[in-house]
Structure prediction request, 137 residues.
Amino acid sequence: MKLTRALTPLAVALVASAAFTTQSLSAQSSGVYTAAQAKAGAAIFTAQCSMCHGDKLEGISGPALAGSDFMSKWSGQTVDDLRDIVTTQMPLTSPGSLKPAEVLSVLAYILQQNKYPAGDTALTAAKTKSVKIVKQG
Prediction:
């Protein structure tokens, strides 16, 4: 009887934890941006970001935004963490000048280049909080 009472709160905690984990994983596997959003982001990236981050996001005078160096630095963080940097510090020549929709499009492009799948709904500021940066297949 005492064991059952002790296990009940543990079971509730495990179920709640699984619910949060599933939401984060399913958001990534089902696509968190649209192809059109990533295409718009590519154009913005070329005009505003590629001079420092490279045409292939490989990093020139700025850090790489794709590949193993990017994953080493950002793995485990959320896209919202990256959104904060882009919003407040980029582009280097005019920090904070990108509109919120432009930032989200650039983030969609970065996700695309890191093999995140496109989906049916656009990346939003709210969604960036639940998307973890992890290596995609």
About this structure: The two ends are 46 Å apart (CA to CA). The CA atoms of residues 43 and 77 lie 25 Å apart.
